[in-house]
Amino acid sequence: WSPISPPSSRQGVNGWRLVAASLCFPSSWSLLEKFSKTLDEIHKPVPDFGPGSRNAEMIFRIFDNLKTEQSVRRFNWSVYSDNELFHDDRAAEHLKKGALGAGAFMRVEHQTLRKLPVSGDILFTVRIHIDPLAATAKQDNRADICAGFVASLEVLDAAQLAYKGLTQERDRLIAALRKIGEMEETP
């Protein structure tokens, strides 16, 4: 991400723009569609992250105030019906490939931001982790994991569910998580 002078201003063409990228494993988006766009433009389709939203302003503040000696990391989750790494589909087509429930795969993006000292550009990295939902049953703290995930799913509004491709699948996914969370430990 490169600042457009002045970096703290987001009026007109100013702001942060995607100017260089290497993408191996997209999570339902296309680099071709995002390249050279601003943060506003890239996040426009994401519910609650559009231009002028509280979340968009928070992202701008993080980018504008990031220090070279600090790094920022966050995690973003999604649910897929397969364990393929490469998904450049933009309409949640990955969920139409198979049923969810116990056959679902958790896809977690470990994202990091780091400001480069000479250019002032920001390096954004994403590492993809994929695990079958059924693997949660092997976790000692599976009840807590499942309860937390259920709570996250229950608060998604219609736009967020549609964006994540879970409009038709949320209830089945919640039922599968509750079943896993209630499983007794195996010796």
Chain-wise SSE layout:
Layout: E1 2-4, E2 15-17, H1 31-34, H2 39-43, H3 54-65, E3 71-80, E4 105-115, E5 122-132, H4 142-154, H5 158-164, H6 170-181
Your description of this structure?
The protein is α+β, with helices and mostly antiparallel strands and 187 residues long. Helices cover 28% and strands 20% of the residues. It is built from 6 helices and 5 strands, in the order ββαααβββααα. The strands form 2 sheets. A 3-stranded antiparallel sheet has the order 3-4-5, with no helix packed on it. The protein has a two-stranded antiparallel ribbon with strand order 1-2. Strand 4 and strand 5 form a beta hairpin. Helix 4 runs antiparallel to helix 6. The longest helix is centred in the last third of the chain and has 13 residues. It is elongated. The protein starts with a strand and ends in a 6-residue tail after the last helix.
**Beta-strand percentage range:** 15-25%
Distance between the termini: 50 Å
What gyration radius follows from the Cα positions, in whole Å? Answer: 18 Å
The structural class is: alpha+beta
H/E element order:
EEHHHEEEHHH
What count of helical segments does DSSP give? 6
Largest beta-sheet characterization: 3 strands, antiparallel
Query: Could you report the average pLDDT, rounded to the nearest whole number?
Result: 84
- The portion of residues assigned to helices is 25-40%
- Poorly predicted ranges: 5-13
Shape: elongated
Count of DSSP E strands?
5
- Spatial strand arrangement across the major sheet: 3-4-5
